[in-house]
Amino acid sequence: MSDVNKIINSIDDFRDERNWRQYHNPKDLSASISIEAAELLESFQWVNSEEALKKNSTNIEDEIADVLIYSLMLCSDLDLDVERIINDKLNKNALKYPVEK
After folding, report:
1. Rounded distance, CA 34 to CA 28, Å?
2. What is the pLDDT of residues 18-60, one digit of tens each?
3. Nearest residue to 15 via CA among 73, 65, 59
4. What single-letter DSSP state applies at residue 47?
5. Which fold has domain 3-96?
6. Pick from 11, 61, 80, 83: most CB atoms within 10 A?
């Protein structure tokens, strides 16, 4: 089992122990990803990146974790292979943006 699948299993166990899966449908998980990404962006609002990292590093880590957790929940629920879809997207990007450009 890959490390990614171990993390997904841990996330699934956490939410199943709390019976939260009933609230997690693709639309709401997608909305949650967007909301958490906006919360991440707030850490950088009105300051440069260096200042944001100095002032808000713990919050930045928490919000990145939230984005990843919701994204992995969505992949789990849609039965998507995270490693495959990332590699597929990297391959598409390599074709779209070759090194020569």
Report:
1. 10
2. 999 999 999 999 999 999 999 999 999 999 999 999 999 999 9
3. 73
4. S
5. Helix Hairpins (1.10.287)
6. 11
Gyration radius from the chain CA atoms: 16
* Alpha helix segments (H runs only) across 18-81: 26-42, 49-77
Q: Does the model's pTM come out above 0.90?
A: yes
CA proximity to 32, closest of 47, 7, 53, 11: 11
- Here the tokens at position 25 are 């449908």
Query: pLDDT, tens digit, for every residue of 55-78?
Result: 999 999 999 999 999 999 999 999
Domain boundaries, the chain: 3-96
Residue with tokens 């969505």: 74
d(C-alpha 13, C-alpha 90), whole Å: 29
Match 């990803």 to its residue by tokens. Answer: 33
Dihedral sign for Cα atoms in the order 54, 55, 58, 63:
negative
